[in-house]
Give the backbone structure.
Amino acid sequence: MTKTISARLLALAGTSLALLGSPLSASIPPPPGAAELAQRGDDIAWSITEDLTTEIGPRMAGTEAEAAARRWAVARLQAMGFANVREEQFDMPVWVRGEEQAWLTSPFLPQKVAITALGTSASTGPRGIEGDIAYFESFDALVAAPEHLVKGKIVFIDHQMASAQDGSGYGTYGRGRFIGANAAAKKGAIATVIRAIGTDDHRNPHAGGTNFEAGVKPIPAGAISNPDADQLVRQWKRAQQMRKSENAMGYVPEPLRMKLVLTPQNLGTKHSGNVIAEVPGSDPAASPVIVACHLDSWDLGTGAIDDAAGCGIVTAAAKHVMSAGQPRRTVRILWAGAEEVGVFGGKAYFEKHGTEKHAVALESDFGADRVWRIDFKLPDSAKGLADRLAAAVVPFGVVRGKQAANGGADIGALVQAGVPAIDLAQDGTRYFDLHHTPDDTLDKIDPAQLRQNVVVWSAVLAILANSADSELP
Amino acid sequence: MTKTISARLLALAGTSLALLGSPLSASIPPPPGAAELAQRGDDIAWSITEDLTTEIGPRMAGTEAEAAARRWAVARLQAMGFANVREEQFDMPVWVRGEEQAWLTSPFLPQKVAITALGTSASTGPRGIEGDIAYFESFDALVAAPEHLVKGKIVFIDHQMASAQDGSGYGTYGRGRFIGANAAAKKGAIATVIRAIGTDDHRNPHAGGTNFEAGVKPIPAGAISNPDADQLVRQWKRAQQMRKSENAMGYVPEPLRMKLVLTPQNLGTKHSGNVIAEVPGSDPAASPVIVACHLDSWDLGTGAIDDAAGCGIVTAAAKHVMSAGQPRRTVRILWAGAEEVGVFGGKAYFEKHGTEKHAVALESDFGADRVWRIDFKLPDSAKGLADRLAAAVVPFGVVRGKQAANGGADIGALVQAGVPAIDLAQDGTRYFDLHHTPDDTLDKIDPAQLRQNVVVWSAVLAILANSADSELP
């Protein structure tokens, strides 16, 4: 675990909310009591993250654990003094993991490989399947390949993700996971194995969903860890070399082969739900500010950075705004359900509330490392507001981005429909070391950086919740 | 992975063997060709490590994989031009891993825990066992506890290992693994779970042996990863707190409970073996220098740092000495079998060769990070030799230690019997991040530090192999 936040940022975090009264936010009065709150420090985000990950742990969408997390969430948000705390249920298809084992079986003695099934993967059956590996260096190479190289084989997609502060590699490298199995299935592959979409070197594969088009029959699909992918590639190269040299001697030895036992199951339609809580605004006519995170997690870790910490951050910020004095606008907290497996919670929220007016939407769902950039997607009327916000977060080391905010998965439908958005972009340099792995656990969170998140979110939310009707819809 | 070797050390490594001709080793002529060898660089240690871990992978003592590793080793050592390459077989009791799963089952919803069985652990049977946790902060606390706190329970030994450059914490922290289950079994525990003896924060538990005294019936014994142990402790504290508050209300809720499914098996007596190779000395009357490593590995990783790299290092050094011109003394390379599970190879070597004269013994079995200290356990006659050796390794950043060398596991019986020993102590700061885990894989090795090892070993071995009869027995 790297703890890189500077002492200077930490010192600044200690005076956080007091800065809301600085000339930078001159047109908005500082929320009463803010200076004292900041002095008291903040363990709200940490305690939400610790308690949720300890008492509930993994909370896969549509399972009893996610339902228990919702009950826990409702009780916690009520105890914190929020208003209108409620669960809004919806239905969704549930897929759960089964046994997961894999071996490289030829041309050497069998060696075990660390694998995890991708969401919506088909089952190999308990006896497993074995096949030749068809190697592709990337998703693009698979797409370009003729069918006969794929048919009847286990497709392996290499393509090692590089880390980036803004997480921008996820789209490019992630295609192998998002749609690789679909492309392989269409060419007749019997299974797909990808190098996990992750930047670490530990033998914990990264889970995540994969998507099959309507009409394409799902095949077994798994991800293996980077060290296992390295081993596969070393063996593949040696198998190629042996084939070359032994072909010359008149026979063709075994290629690289793999055996997979993956027995996930589709459980059909089950309940999931969003948990919602509010800080009621003083002006009932003013549209609410919505701050989101997601309550569900993948099942290998305890979902600490993804996304208990996000719920901790947005809720701590809302609590600070509430404690500092009633804001003009309502702050609505959305702990979305079933994000990981298809953003069912975000869609359900939009179906139910999409026609209501929302002033602006923000989401925290990129770990617990420090916020380093603020991005806006606001109406022209909010130009002054954006300047105030950008100025307010400068003291915490946050720079102003030049790109449009994109919002986040659970508020994606709202933003798509025109609701303004702000991104408080977190440092994602090590996010994909942990993302969807068994290693997504509480110990990976740096309390100092988590605190910086809360301070930045509190500053931003206090300004937004008191913004004028002339600034936001 | 941390790559900390300095550019300066690297540059020095490039001129390694040339230094053997410096005035520091004035009484010994520089081996012919040494300077040229050093210029060519060295990928011998790397290629041994890569090939063994790729083509054989995990090689648990007494298994078919270890036998395959011996065949591989004999072929490799012969191909490298060593003399008297041979396998010396011995028998040993074989224990193999089965299914391994564990859950924290109460007072919260069941949560899965990453566990591995300790060598010689009994089986829980396929249906597993469940019991209350008896918490002990250390091995000493377990020893001090009255029997009624242990009887019928699953003992948990906390005690988080701290990392140390010289690995000196292994003895202290390791007791929970070495003899914790034995102590628990004697007090009537139904199983033992320890916080793994490791310094990392990944959910890969550290394997290793545990020992039951004669007459003590083995119980199931496992190790859980540090993040899992953290989670267990958090839940245990909450369970304690709930008991306190709910006791006051008149009833006693569930304590922390755990379920274990560990199904290892004892396979009885099987063959293992040592692989031996030699650089024949020019003086048949001179006693040999023995350099050792171990060929077997634990089964979770591919045994790259433990101990393929050690075999790579000592063998590369011996090859350099051989290539530089015939030394006066024979250099005997011992790739010991079955070290991890009880040093059976070292004992077998001693039984067969313990009465022969040995000039001095060295072993490489502490990873692949740089050598930082040289320690001696030599006769008085070797005072000048020790000075020459210490001076020869100074340019590579190696300091002279003030403590007696202890030799290493596989040469332990020799050293115990009076054979002189030298330790080339490696930096162990991150050794216990990886030790006995699935993460002990090739990618964890820093080629630059591995090369520094070879250079230091080559310098030392060239001097030792040409030392005088008046210096060493």
Remarks:
- The longest strand of chain A covers residues 265-279.
- The CA atoms of residues 289 and 472 of chain A lie 10 Å apart.
